[in-house]
TrEMBL record, chain A:
GO terms for cellular component: plasma membrane. One of its GO terms (molecular function) is branched-chain amino acid transmembrane transporter activity. NCBIfam families: urea_trans_UrtC. This is Urea transport system permease protein. It comes from Neomesorhizobium albiziae. Keywords: Cell membrane, Membrane, Transmembrane, Transmembrane helix. The chain crosses the membrane at residues 15-36, 42-61, 68-90, 131-154, 161-179, 210-230, 258-278, 298-321, 333-353. It is a multi-pass membrane protein. Coiled coil: none annotated.
Automatic annotation (TrEMBL), chain B:
GO terms for cellular component: plasma membrane. Keywords: ATP-binding, Nucleotide-binding, Transport. InterPro entries: AAA+_ATPase, ABC_AA/LPS_Transport, ABC_transporter-like_ATP-bd, ABC_transptr_urea_ATP-bd_UrtD, P-loop_NTPase. GO terms for molecular function: ATP binding; ATP hydrolysis activity. This is Urea transport system ATP-binding protein. The keyword Hydrolase does not apply. Residues 8-248 form the ABC transporter domain. It comes from the Bacteria. Signal peptide: none annotated.
């Protein structure tokens, strides 16, 4: 079975398989949607394509969070803000593409500006009629915000729960700002009624398939980049900062720069996720800045398994599939289910689905080895004396990492 | 007093936290290549002194010079570490989710910015250096093990190894034998004496047997300043030292 092999491999092989699956999906899903006739059993309806595309955007967002939370211990409760900013940058491009096809037929101003009696385009909307400019802003705006925010936060050595709270405050402040009509971003209605992207109709199934493929490719690339970052010496340093920040400082590393780089890269990834999300769902409004959204991302990541790269993707897809089903079948119960799931995962699966799988694998491996051979399991090498015995046990081969200690 | 030939020069250093004088007019001089043991009852200011030298705490007044003429009060932890002061914490602090080898790799002297680390490729020279340090700290057979799985004593050694990897001029070692068995203590004394041949070292320690084994000049701190200084026999014969250790 695919899933069996998928989980069975070591972390590196698992990541490679994830990349290959995403690349395959980028090719196969559009074919099943476009080339297979609707009468065939293999045909994928367009709404499924759009829905899975949306899930993959969420997966990319969860992966971005995992880079800072799983590998650097920065629990950001404001990653939704970077996602939304990327989404707004893309939304502004899509608004400018409407041109004179809007309700008011104004060739320059989007409908909401005409409605508000604005006479000319605000300066910050300039350039968004060009795709390359919008694409640049998709990465630049969230990246710059994260850089400036992180610069002050990490330099002042704000860590732990205080950092989480200010990230939350950041996204809440943006939520309030974007709700204002005179901000120039469409107020509480946000940006919608999109027509074209790069000259193609956003509603057409071929465009939806292409957007799906782009999302799958972006996610595959992000998995690859994250994997390379985490595997580099810098990645080791990132985990070192997570586990013992003061130690890295006294070794001469600037822990604040280590965190700042990861935080900025992560925000750029979140921005790209948002930009891919908006044309697929057809709207971006200030609700995306809602702190509850950012917390949900944390839940996806925790459920899938933080610090595993593949885990957050699994978590995001599973939880959102569950959400789609639940909000259809039992809409009142969804939030209880989500809360219950989070509590259950925190209590029973502290390392998430992927972490639990790894533990179970090593457990069965040990049992197999013990039952297959009559000889007793190899004894520990004679160590001098083990003063702290809590982490030193017979489970030497256990691949699970030790719990990070809070930095001093 | 000339500070030209000193590795560490503290003069009239004071620092207080919320009115409590942790360090009170402390003066201490360490010559190049010297190993010094610092003893003193709890709260004597030993760890605070290390905090001042490594840039974690700024003194309220006084001079702190490293290597003759570098004013340490103007630099932060990372800069001071790069200049050549290594510090071992009281509680062994290693990167538990990394292998012993990776712990040393992250400590090796070299550029300390993000992009070189991102595109770093390990050189034969670095491997050689890691082998050396594994040999010195007797951790050769634990190379690939997670640091979390080391015994307490081995973690202490790994942390000392990480200091060596930095190639510092001065090592500050805070309670290296706390929680060690007698055999490990002896081994640690030998390790530190080895290190002291090529480095200046300050060892803070409570264990008098260990200090005796080191056989170096001893400084006894009390209430943030130097109470007595000299050989261990001289210091332990000092009336005032006996008094602060045994209480009045």
């Amino acid at each position: 079975m695919i899933t069996g092999r998928f989980f069975a491999a070591g972390a590196d092989r698992r990541i490679l398989i994830a990349i290959l699956l995403l690349l395959a999906a980028a090719v196969i899903v559009p074919i099943l949607n476009l080339a297979v006739p609707p009468t065939s059993g293999l045909h994928l309806p367009s709404y499924i394509v759009a829905l899975t595309g949306k899930y993959l955007c969420y997966a990319l967002l969860a992966l971005a969070l995992d880079l800072v939370w799983g590998y650097c211990g920065i629990l950001s409760l404001g990653h939704g803000a970077f996602f939304a900013l990327g989404g707004y940058a893309m939304g502004m491009y899509l608004m400018r593409q409407i041109g004179d096809r809007g309700v008011y037929g104004n060739p320059l101003l989007p409908d909401f500006m005409v409605f508000l009696n604005w006479k000319e385009l605000p300066w910050f909307w300039y350039g968004f009629d060009q795709f390359w400019f919008a694409a640049l802003m998709v990465m630049l705006v969230p990246g710059l915000l994260a850089f400036v925010f992180g610069w002050f936060a990490f330099r002042s050595r704000v860590t732990g729960v205080y950092l989480s709270i200010i990230t939350q405050a950041m996204t809440y402040a943006l939520l309030l700002a974007f709700f204002r009509n005179d901000m120039g971003f469409g107020g509480n209605n946000g940006l919608t009624d999109f027509k074209d992207i790069l000259g193609f109709n956003v509603q057409a199934s071929s465009t939806r398939s292409a957007l799906f493929a782009a999302t799958a490719l972006a996610l595959a690339l992000a998995v690859f980049v994250t994997w390379r970052i985490v595997g580099s010496k810098y990645g080791k340093l990132l985990m070192a900062v997570r586990d013992a920040e003061s130690r890295t400082r006294f070794l001469g590393w600037r822990a604040e720069n280590v965190k700042l780089f990861a935080f900025t890269v992560s925000a750029v990834m979140a921005g790209i996720a948002g930009a891919l999300y908006v044309p697929q769902v057809g709207i971006i409004n200030p609700g995306e800045f809602d702190p509850a959204n950012s917390i949900e991302v944390v839940i996806w990541t925790a459920i899938g398994g933080r610090g595993t790269i593949v885990g957050p993707i699994i978590g995001a897809i599973l939880v959102n599939t569950g959400k789609s089903w639940f909000t259809g079948a039992l809409p009142e119960l969804w939030l209880f289910a989500l809360g219950g799931l989070f509590v259950a995962v925190t209590l029973f699966l502290p390392k998430g689905i992927v972490g639990m799988w790894d533990q179970w694998r090593s457990y069965t491996k040990v049992r197999h080895a013990a039952s297959a051979e009559a000889s007793p399991p190899p004894a520990e090498p004679p160590a001098i004396v083990r003063v702290s015995s809590d982490k030193v046990s017979g489970w030497k081969d256990e691949p699970g990492l030790p719990e990070p200690q809070p930095a001093e | 007093m000339s500070r030209g030939n000193t590795i560490l020069y503290l003069d009239g250093v004071s620092v207080s936290f919320d009115g409590f004088r942790a360090i009170n007019d402390l003066s201490l001089v360490l010559d190049r290549g010297e190993m010094r043991a610092i003893i003193g009852p709890n709260g004597a200011g030993k760890t605070t002194m290390m905090d001042i030298v490594t840039g974690k705490t700024r003194p309220d007044s006084g001079e702190v010079f490293f290597d003759g003429d570098i004013d340490l009060t103007r630099h932060d932890e990372a800069e001071i570490a790069m200049m050549g002061i290594g510090r071992k914490f009281q509680k062994p602090t290693v990167f538990e989710s990394h292998s012993v080898e990776d712990n040393l790799l992250l400590s090796l002297k070299g550029p300390r910015s993000i992009f070189p680390a991102l595109f770093h490729r390990r050189s034969a020279e670095e491997n050689c250096r890691i082998d050396d340090i594994l040999g010195i700290t007797r951790l050769g057979d634990r190379r690939g093990d997670l640091a979390a799985n080391l015994s307490h004593g081995q973690k202490q050694w790994l942390e000392i190894g990480m200091l060596l990897a930095q190639d510092p001029k001065l090592l500050l070692v805070d309670e290296p034998v706390a929680g060690m068995t007698d055999a490990e203590t002896e081994e640690t004394a030998r390790l530190l004496k080895d290190i002291a041949r090529e480095h200046s070292v300050i060892v803070v320690e409570h264990d008098m047997h260990f200090v005796r084994e080191l056989g170096v000049k001893v400084t006894c701190l009390h209430e943030g300043s130097v109470l007595s200084e000299g050989t261990l026999d001289f210091v332990s014969a000092d009336e005032r030292v006996v008094e602060v250790y045994l209480g009045r």
